[in-house]
Design a protein that fits this description.
The protein is mostly beta strands. It is built from four helices and 57 strands.
Length: 723
């Protein structure tokens, strides 16, 4: 089982790496046709949700002349927006600094913001206030108590206090009788928490600007460290309270639960299932730890108001009473008297570092009227920032790819069809009510549409009127459509690429059963030729590979060779490469030097914190009726010895396989193989590429390309594991 976890973790990181590449490439294509002209840095902001929204953007911005004293940010309408330079905790270093600003972005669309250096910060928004014991914005007033807990959330719009007692992190003792990894027992849940995370707390203000204010609370309990950051934003983003959590966990036999004692009271709460909701009552013997996605809600029995609990990655919760909700955050069980005794390794599960966010949103009426479910989606899918080259563009400074004219219908998926040139869109009705005459529009008019199922098998016709798809929903109904779009009025030029001829000198890919003379690495292990295509396409760039499996050289060893680049108006070189172990390497294009880390061709590209063990065998009691002289029953006992810290390697993966070939030609399953894509800028008048003097670096292909300016993510698109 531990190895299965390691393989799945690596697969997670591969998927995140490749999705990040797809999003960056797609954003670059759209941004190349937008008007990104700016006085400062041009930041293109993407909204993945099908509602227009206003939220805080966090972006690491490059300042060529050094980090300024302050920033001013101008939106696509030419007006200045709340913005601040975050110089806390060393976020401003060298020529890059973290900038926060409030952005409005259209449905499934993009907006361009101009981040300008300034000598002084703009006038502060008087509605944002912060101290070590309080936070306030236009919507909420928060107070912290001496333990560092949020003791009061006053909703100024409702003129109501939302909390009846402080929001606390509770430690609930867990000793399930059987199956400790996932069971919780009713006997444990009826008991009060054995402890709460409390003071003495170290409290400091970490953000104080016109875009957002926040307070950081650091505490310790039961061998664990807890750092909680409470945040309030300006604008519409300020309609939720966010709690960022960074926890180093080592508690024993406990579940960590965020406890929300509310002033709203109701025997029933509502839980989101993404394609519907369900109402459940207070904890009872048959139902005391329940599932939901992104949010659950307690609306007062009067129907006058309520509070929605928001979560970015936690799915279990319970409801001890009419006015209390608890979100389960971490679970490390103890062992009861049943079969759990055979699972001693599970007493340390979840030990390690955790980062997650939960939040609260007050509302008048119920969650449907206030649409606080969208606050949960916004928490889960923040606005994403990219730094772009500056240029004019026909699409303007704000552009939407997709719109739905009813905010109570949400897009669940938007993708290319598997077996046609159509676009697949999947939607769900959110309120549990009929929704008629819903109009769905793309940036280009729809020419035809048909309804399909989840496998994209046709179900029937769909209605298209004036270039939009028109449909109706029954309560919580899911519809999936395949649509054809009319040709765009103006097409974005695809990248032009040309392969570079290489003098291959090493066989690094073999067929199964064939022993390589050299192989990829010093152990003569090789790439699986049966998995390597003749061409690899990476974000529109094409790499031509030498034939694999023929026993002929199909890679170039880096030994300082000088390669002549093709003539033409090319502005970028792409390397398809990997190495025998991670290797530092300097490439030269003309007189320009570029230092790269060429990643190892095998192993893992990512792992989470991983437990280490000492193993030993110990005897077990004999089963009743065991004959005399039978060998003793034995079991494997795992003794926890520590944590191997997680890591993520970030070179863009252009190709991978889940196995490689050993020196004897045999397959080695779950021994990954990779090739990575490395872009390098071609300076003016450069005619040659000089490889590094490092014979552990293997180049499988080189391509030159003519691309419009490349966008760069201004924030991590997936986990970094930095803490």
């Amino acid at each position: 089982t531990p190895k299965a976890y390691e393989f799945s973790w690596n697969d997670d990181v591969i998927a995140m790496n490749q999705f990040a590449g797809v999003l960056t490439s797609a954003t670059g294509a759209v941004a190349s046709a937008m008007d990104t002209q700016a006085k400062g840095a041009a930041i293109v902001v993407y909204n993945p949700l099908n509602i227009p929204r206003e939220d805080v953007v966090e972006a690491d911005i490059s300042f060529p002349n050094g980090v300024p004293k302050a920033v001013r940010v101008v939106g696509p309408d030419g007006n200045e927006v709340p913005a601040q330079l975050n110089a806390q905790a060393g976020s401003a270093t060298g020529r890059t600094a973290k900038v926060l600003f409030v952005a409005k972005v259209p449905s499934v669309g993009y907006a361009v913001y101009d981040v300008q250096p300034a000598e002084s910060a703009p006038a502060a928004d008087s509605s944002l206030k912060v101290s070590e014991s309080s936070l306030e914005n236009a919507r909420y007033r928060l107070k912290l108590d001496e333990n560092g807990d949020v003791a009061s959330i006053f909703d100024k719009t409702l003129n109501k206090q939302l909390l009846s007692a402080p929001v606390r992190l509770a430690l609930q003792t867990e000793h399930p009788h059987d199956w400790p990894a996932w069971n919780m027992d009713w006997a444990d849940q009826q008991k009060p928490p054995r402890a709460y995370v409390q003071g003495p707390a170290k409290v400091r203000v970490v953000e104080n600007g016109p875009a957002r204010v926040s307070v950081e609370v650091s505490r310790q309990a039961e061998d664990s460290n807890f750092v909680q950051t409470i945040r309030l934003a300006a604008g519409d983003a300020g309609n939720r309270v966010e709690f960022g959590n960074a926890i180093d966990w080592k508690a024993k036999a406990a579940a960590l639960k965020a406890t929300f004692p509310l002033t709203a009271a109701n025997p029933q709460a509502t839980y989101n299932w993404d394609i519907g909701t369900i109402q459940r009552g207070n904890n009872d013997e048959k139902k005391f730890e329940v599932a939901s996605h992104q949010w659950f809600d307690l609306t007062d029995k009067s129907g006058a108001y309520g509070t929605t609990v928001l979560s970015d990655c936690k799915y279990g919760s319970d409801k001890p009473g009419d006015n209390t909700l608890r979100l389960t955050l971490i679970y490390t069980p103890g062992l009861g008297e049943g079969n759990g005794r055979a699972y001693s390794d599970q007493t340390t599960q979840d030990w390690g570092h955790h980062d997650f966010v939960f939040g609260l949103a007050g509302h008048a009426g119920d969650w449907k009227q206030a649409e606080t479910d969208w606050q949960a989606q916004r928490l889960n899918q923040p606005l994403i920032a990219f730094e772009s080259p500056k240029h004019p563009g026909a699409l303007g400074k704000s552009f939407s790819l997709f719109k739905v004219d009813n905010s109570r219908v949400r897009v669940l998926a938007l993708k290319k069809a598997e077996e046609s040139d159509e676009v697949i869109v999947r939607l769900v009705e959110l309120d549990g009510k009929p929704a008629s005459s819903v109009h769905i529009a793309f940036a280009s008019p729809i020419t035809s549409a048909r309804e399909v199922n989840g496998q994209e098998i046709p179900l029937g016709k769909a209605t298209v009127s004036k270039g939009t798809l028109v449909t109706s929903f029954t309560p919580y109904e899911v519809h999936t459509f395949a649509v054809k779009l009319s040709p765009a009025g103006a097409k974005i030029a695809a990248p032009q690429s040309q392969p570079v001829t290489l003098a291959y000198d090493r066989v690094v890919a073999t067929e199964t059963g064939k022993k390589p003379e050299t192989g990829f690495d010093s152990q003569r292990r090789a790439l699986p030729a049966e998995m390597l295509p003749a061409e690899i396409s990476y974000n529109g760039i094409h790499f031509n590979l030498a034939p694999a499996g023929e026993g002929k050289p199909n890679a170039l060893t880096a030994k300082g060779q000088k390669i002549t680049l093709p003539e033409g108006s090319f502005n970028r070189v792409y390397l398809l490469a990997a190495a025998d172990g991670d290797q530092k390497a300097t490439f030269r294009i003309g007189d320009q030097s570029d230092d790269l880390t060429i990643q190892d061709w095998g192993g893992y590209v990512g792992q989470w914190d991983n437990r280490t063990w000492n193993k030993h065998e110990e005897p077990m009691p004999a089963r009743p009726g065991t004959p005399p002289g039978a060998p003793p029953r034995m079991r494997t006992v795992l003794e926890y010895t520590g944590l191997t810290p997680g890591f993520i390697k970030r070179a863009p993966i252009a190709w991978f396989a889940s196995h490689h070939h050993n020196a004897d030609g045999s397959d080695e399953p779950y021994a990954y193989s990779y090739l990575f894509a490395y872009p390098l800028e071609i300076p003016a008048n450069a005619k040659t590429l000089t490889l590094p003097e490092n014979d552990k670096v293997r180049i499988l292909a080189v391509t030159v390309a003519n691309e419009s300016g490349e966008v760069h993510p201004a924030q991590p698109l997936y986990d970094t594991l930095e803490h």
